[in-house]
Amino acid sequence: MFLLLAAGIMLPALRENPEDLQALLKNAERELDWHFFAEAKSSYLEILQRYPQSGGTNEALGYICLMQEQYNDSCAYFEKELELEPDNELTRLFLTIARFQAGKTPASREMIQQIGSISKKKNRRKHPFFRKFLGDNPGLLSFVTGILYKQSGEWAYAEEMMDEAAGEKYNLAEIMVQLVDQYLQQQNSAAAESMLSRLERQNFQLAEQMGEIVKTRDLKKAREYARSRPIIIRYFKESITTITDDLNVMAQNAVKRADPQGAIKSWLKALYADDKRFDIHYNIALIYCLYKFPRESLYHCRRAIDLGNPQYQSWALNLAGNITFEMADLDQALKFYQEALDLTPDYLKCRNNLGHTYWKLGDLPNAERQWRIVIENSGSGGKELDVREWNDKENIKVLIDVKESDEIVEAGKSLAALYIQQKQVAKAIPLLEMVLQFIPSDADSHFELARIYMQLDSLELARQHLNMAIGNGTSFESEAGKLLVELAKMIE
């Protein structure tokens, strides 16, 4: 797709087949965009061997090494690129970052001025790719400048540049890591702890690591950790939208192949390109939840909640409620479900979940109320959310379709169980009969009815339901067998 590579350098005239080079470049660029770094590196090395003067190849290899934290190799490739194109601003920026992260060059006024001069230059006609790069990396120059000021001990300027980076939408968690370190170095423990609490919502893994450092007030360790954090740099040939859409399709195909790890891998690469995609965060959260990684799931749920509009938020809030419910944090689950229903009162699946939470908390009147609302609104004027229609309207794809017709069944069974627990079996009968109207083969509902009818001495009805329960494979198989023997004696 690109006749210009890397920093917009025109490819030199070649005696070898230029179409062959373009094919190699297209393949290498796709691998680079998708963060298949090992494959991309191999492809670019082949290009470099066959076309040693091709502009941008050394720069791409330098970026790959930078992402792999091979800083010395990264510096070497960037230096070679500058030999071919001394005025390449992008390569010079990369070299500054690589040298700093390699520890070759301490923060200096010269480095700060160099970054500042790149930031102020407006005429980039010679380097159109650099314009794209700056558009793909909002806040990067401010963030790097802030780090350099921090390393040189110019605290006020450092904090000012970090604020600018945040306003320009650079990765907020990475900004917070740097600020926690800065506040510790300034002996401002209160500010460090406050920033750490904000970091917990953005990235719990980073917060855990920084939390240990804040507890011990280990200034050396804080400084080393902050400096070791890789700088997030988006270096894409194709548009970010195209890349994220391609990776999203790859992830969805992995789900269809029952390859959740492959799906997560593709989605995380997509988020490196664009971390503001509600659907991707939501899908990752759902996969993590299904495979019992609650903390990871909750992190992506929170990101989805922060990104979504009210309709989307209710989905993510419901999932967050499910996660915290499984983590036995019932009070927090209650808050998530209630917030979702504040946004979407007719979200019946969420209301069912709220009922279960109240029941688990021992608040039976509120549990009964929620399930009654579900039953009264299912299929009788209550809005049923259809995820497929939602996809068509909003171009959003989520993994699991919501079938609200199932919600009346869940509410009926739950409310019946509540009445049985309260020994109000007469109230449970019509609910279980309603469930069987929707799912005639529901074995456990047949079993519960058999037990109730035995208590009421309606032995023929008990026998009919017990036979249906056993025939359809009730989960109470052992109890059903005993009940069958007892029922036979009663009939005799």
Description of the structure:
This protein has 27 helices and 2 strands. The chain has 492 residues and is mainly α. The protein folds into 4 domains: 1-105, Alpha Horseshoe (Serine Threonine Protein Phosphatase 5, Tetratricopeptide repeat); 120-238, no CATH class; 240-328, Tetratricopeptide repeat domain (Serine Threonine Protein Phosphatase 5, Tetratricopeptide repeat), CATH 1.25.40; 440-491, no CATH class. The chain has a two-stranded antiparallel sheet with strand order 1-2.
Topology record:
Blueprint: E1 4-5, E2 9-10, H1 18-33, H2 37-50, H3 57-67, H4 71-84, H5 89-102, H6 109-120, H7 128-136, H8 140-151, H9 155-167, H10 172-185, H11 189-202, H12 204-216, H13 219-228, H14 240-256, H15 260-273, H16 278-290, H17 294-307, H18 310-326, H19 330-343, H20 348-360, H21 364-377, H22 387-394, H23 407-421, H24 425-438, H25 443-455, H26 459-471, H27 477-491
Antiparallel strand pairs: 1-2
Helix pairs in contact: 1-2, 2-3, 3-4, 3-5, 4-5, 6-8, 8-9, 9-10, 10-11, 10-12, 10-13, 11-12, 14-15, 15-16, 16-17, 16-18, 17-18, 18-19, 18-20, 19-20, 20-21, 20-23, 21-23, 23-24, 24-25, 25-26, 26-27
